[in-house]
């Protein structure tokens, strides 16, 4: 079975399984039933069994799941059994925070930051060199990039995306409050922080019993 | 009609309307039909009409929506017509990036950062003072907090959340890769960046035709 059959809803639950199984391994848990997993992770037991059945038979009737095996399977399914070349466009506060976040430990190899500020170019953030945005295309012609993270000001985000796409980027992790226009088959994952914060505001307002 | 009737799916579309209407106002667009809005924003015209109908009658048959009026309505519905007191726990790279992001312009008043690092305490990031995490409870007893942003290391996130809750925080914007255990009625919005990045990895892997 190819992974193309898997729905985005299932895909978005995988990192959570990864996280909880990793914690269990650290605590020395050897095996777990879907019922126990359900109580910890908050998805229903049948949801969990269904999710895992998408990828094959992991559990054993009356035994449950071997935590280590299951973790390894999920790790492979997500694609964390190999590494990814990552660049960050925008060496500001957020770019620096992401360079320093520790994604490397998961196999995301942040190999360069790019910026247009002469004061930053040539320096490093978390041991990652900041390069001139003007050489982006040259750099990418020599070095295939799996993931480009955009943390630029919003008004240049689309231009940067266009340049990344022409240069053959495989996916974009977009931190700007902008819905990028990209070819249909390009992978774009948005972290629209402002949208998320506005949701908090709405819910606070709702809790106050505001009437529209 | 109270806002309690509105589904999370609708609520999560509101910031996007806010963003696109704001852009249109900047471009000097006076009015727009649901069909035109649909082409720009990517939701169907009937979806858009349905969403707005949740909050009252905004449009006019054959005229469409007045962009400025609609923007103002959405702004009020989200709750951006008043301000929120915000603190950030964790004055690291990410905390600094969030302090500097510009949320203030939207009415999110970031009034303090907190950290446990003596080298940081007393200093400022983006004009926001970094205070000792030890005085969190005292600070909050004098200053009601609407939103606490957690950007601490993951292993202290739950402890910080517990302290915030006891101190009367109204909502938590959680940037740690941890599902916080909180009272059912507390508002928690997660930005699980690792989960988002893993989704990118999965989709890259899938595009490679990996078979599970």
Structure described in brief:
Two copies of one chain form a homodimer. With 212 residues, chain A is of the alpha/beta class.
Layout of strands and helices, then pairs:
The structure is a homodimer of 212-residue chains.
Chain A: H1 8-26, E1 31-32, H2 34-41, H3 45-53, E2 65-66, H4 67-78, E3 84-89, H5 93-99, E4 108-115, E5 124-125, E6 128-132, H6 136-142, E7 147-150, H7 154-166, E8 171-174, E9 187-190, H8 193-207
Helix pairs in contact in A: 1-4, 2-3
Written account of the structure:
The structure is a homodimer of 212-residue chains. The first copy, chain A, is α/β, with parallel strands linked by helices and 212 residues long. Chain A has two domains: 3-78, Arc Repressor Mutant, subunit A (Orthogonal Bundle); 84-196, Rossmann fold (3-Layer(aba) Sandwich), CATH 3.40.50. The first copy, chain A, is 42% helix and 17% strand. Chain A has helices spanning 8-26, 34-41, 45-53, 67-78, 93-99, 136-142, 154-166, 193-207; strands at 31-32, 65-66, 84-89, 108-115, 124-125, 128-132, 147-150, 171-174, 187-190. The first copy, chain A, has a seven-stranded mixed β-sheet with strand order 5-6-4-3-7-8-9, with helices on both faces. A two-stranded antiparallel ribbon of chain A has the order 1-2. In chain A, α7 links the parallel β7 and β8. In chain A, α1 (8-26) crosses α4 (67-78) and α2 (34-41) packs across α3 (45-53). The longest helix of chain A has 19 residues, at 8-26. The first copy, chain A, starts with 7 loop residues before the first helix and ends in a 5-residue tail after the last helix.
């Amino acid at each position: 079975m190819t992974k193309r059959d898997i729905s985005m809803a299932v895909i978005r639950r995988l990192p959570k399984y990864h996280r909880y199984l990793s914690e269990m391994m650290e605590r020395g848990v050897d095996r777990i039933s879907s019922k126990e997993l359900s109580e910890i992770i908050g998805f229903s037991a049948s949801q969990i069994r269904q999710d895992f059945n998408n990828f094959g038979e992991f559990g054993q009737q009356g035994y449950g799941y071997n935590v280590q095996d299951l973790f390894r399977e999920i790790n492979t399914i997500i694609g964390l059994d190999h590494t990814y070349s990552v660049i960050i466009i925008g060496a500001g506060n957020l770019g620096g925070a992401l360079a320093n976040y520790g994604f490397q430990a998961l196999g995301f190899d942040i190999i360069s930051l790019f910026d247009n500020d002469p004061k930053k170019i040539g320096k490093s953030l978390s041991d990652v060199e900041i390069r001139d945005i003007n050489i982006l295309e040259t750099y990418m012609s020599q070095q295939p990039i799996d993931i480009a993270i955009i943390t630029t000001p919003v008004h240049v985000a689309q231009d940067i995306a266009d340049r990344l796409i022409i240069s053959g980027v495989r996916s974009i992790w977009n931190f700007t409050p902008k819905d990028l226009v990209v070819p249909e088959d390009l992978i774009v994952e948005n972290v629209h922080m402002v949208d998320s914060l506005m949701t908090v505001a709405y819910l606070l307002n709702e809790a106050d019993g505001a009437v529209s």
